[in-house]
Each structure stands twice: as C-alpha cells, then as structure tokens.
Design goal:
Largest sheet: 5 strands, parallel
Distance between the termini: 28 Å
Shape: elongated
Helix content: 40-55%
Strand content: 15-25%
Strand order of the largest sheet: 3-2-1-4-5
Number of helices: 7
Number of strands: 7
Order of helices and strands: EHEHEHEHEEEHHH
Length: 185
Amino acid sequence: MIPIALDPRFARLAVAGNGPLALRRFRALRAAGAADAILFSDAPADDAVIAAGGSLRRALPEAADLTALHALWIVDLPRHRAETLANAARDARVLVNVEDVPQFCDFHSVAEIRRGDLLLTISTNGRAPGLSSLIRRDLEQKYGPEWQERVAEIGALRADWQREGVAMPEAAQRIAAIVAERAWL
C-alpha cells in the first residue's frame, strides 16, 4: 500500500450503500473536508436522508455517475451487488473500497485521529482493522485536543519563518527546540 493524504477539494468522492455503516463513512468524508461527497443509496434510512440532504442520490451509481468520480466507498451492500458495482467502478477507472472485503479494495481506509490540521493515521494494510482501532484509541489519549492549538501555533511560526527566508532545516531545528522546551513529546 502507498499511504497518501488526499485533498478532497480536488477529488470527487462518493459512498454507495445502505445502512448505518454507509452513513458513518459518508459523515467521515464530510468531516475530512469532502463537502461535495455524494451518498448513493437505493434504500436510505431517514437519518441518511437528513444527513446527506441534497447530496443524496436515491439509487446506486450508474455508469455515467461513476465516470464523474475519483474514489468510491461501497458499504452495507450484499456481496454480489458490491462486487458488481466495484467492477463497474473499476471499468470507469474509479478507485474502489468495498468495506471489509479486501479482495475488492484498491485502497483501504485508515483508522484516524483528527486534531485540527493534525491527522494521525493507522493502517494494518486491511489485515486487522480491529487492531488499528485499538491503536487509534491509545493514540487518542496521547494526542488530545490540545494538539489542534499546538499545530496551529507551529504552523503560524513556520509561515513567518518562510516569509523571513528561514531554510527548512533551520525551521525543523526551531520546531524541535519548541517541542522539547515545552515537553510536548
């Protein structure tokens, strides 16, 4: 697997499925900044209708829908429907994740911790998602909400240093000194 952080402003993302796990994945995409994410559901629950609003499509994606996407998460569909949709998406050159069916996945979703601009991710390459979840809970305790402000502060300092022409190695040393002085790690 190749880890990347995808900027949702430049990718068209969607979830296809019914049920609470599909809604959870859709909400996770929205929380990650994918304001234009679409939820395709041919049997949406009331909470999905409310949460997705105008981003809900009351059907599973057709070929024309797929060609407009970069990545598709398929969740809460029977295996045969998920496989058919995954194959159609691949034919349209769309990256696919069929939740909990690794052989149908072009990529895996990671366990994540968000603290403002700080994003910590954990992956077991799709082999042990439960273990990823345990590690995530451990890291959530070590990297609490205070890290949002810390990242913002260091980010502002770094921007100042860039304007001043401070080279990256010097900026890294300054950051290390601040972290050590304040015993953040």
